[in-house]
Amino acid sequence: MQTKYGRPKQLTDPYKDFEGYEDKLTKIINKKDEELNFEDFGLIFSMFLPAADYQEGLYFIPLCFEKMEKSCPFEENVCVSLFWYIGHFQDKLKEDGFYADCIREIESYFEMITKDFVVVNEYQPSLRYRLSKLKYGLTVERIAYGAMQTDETWKILSKLLFGLKDKGSIGSCWWIMVSYFVRDRISYAQKRSLNYRKEKIMFEHFHKFGEYSKHFEKARLCTQEKGTYSFLPQFAIIPFEIKK
């Protein structure tokens, strides 16, 4: 993939969103591959307004995946814009024979971050602080929110989130967490009168009659065995109504 067009000598800003800030893009290009950080990748693949066109961004896709896989699991280290970028340029990626590889990388990454459910401190009161104590908690939260942002991210990420139901007791633990994230997101959208079609679909899927209670029971048994059950009840379902 990186050898197809080589390392770009510039980021051409195809949507002219960085006019007046060209120095930012030049600094990114002048960095060594191993020096690139999440802010850099966020600009390169920026949702709707990427700094890189297709040929330029192609070089950085493997580097971004590598960065996500190697980063601290207790911080929000995921570039959702990368998933949007892959969906946005899927036709060109298919032409070059790389789209299937990208999807496999996303699936592999999601499997890595949801293969276990590890809590290192379950007694902190703040949600954000609590999630920082759940291995990949902040990352899965960002992916759940990211899935609902655009059609491109929805197509790629929603089926991975829905697939948690088939991953045994660990998948059930994550199912309960994602249920909470979805409830939080739809509440946010309703308060601001935003269009929340994807949030509704996600909510209905994760709170389908019988599904939530089934997964909560599996999650309860799993976390009790690990001694981290007290982390789970904070996110138990309470009555909630979606506005029509």
Task: Tell me what you see in this structure.
This protein is an all-alpha fold. It has 2 domains: 1-114, no CATH class; 116-244, no CATH class. 59% of the residues lie in helices and 0% in strands. The chain has 14 helices and no strands. The longest helix is centred in the C-terminal third of the chain and has 24 residues, at 168-191. The model is unreliable at 235-244 (pLDDT under 50).
Architecture blueprint of SSEs:
Layout: H1 2-5, H2 22-30, H3 38-44, H4 54-58, H5 61-70, H6 80-88, H7 90-96, H8 99-114, H9 127-131, H10 137-147, H11 151-162, H12 168-191, H13 197-206, H14 211-226
Number of domains: 2
The overall strand count is: 0
The low-pLDDT segments are 235-244
Largest β sheet strand count, sense and barrel closure: none
- How many H/I helices? 14
Q: Separation of termini? A: 46 Å
What does this entry show, briefly?
The protein has helices at residues 2-5, 22-30, 38-44, 54-58, 61-70, 80-88, 90-96, 99-114, 127-131, 137-147, 151-162, 168-191, 197-206, 211-226. With 244 residues, it is mainly α.
Can you tag this structure with a few keywords?
elongated, disordered C terminus, 244 residues, mainly alpha, 14 helices
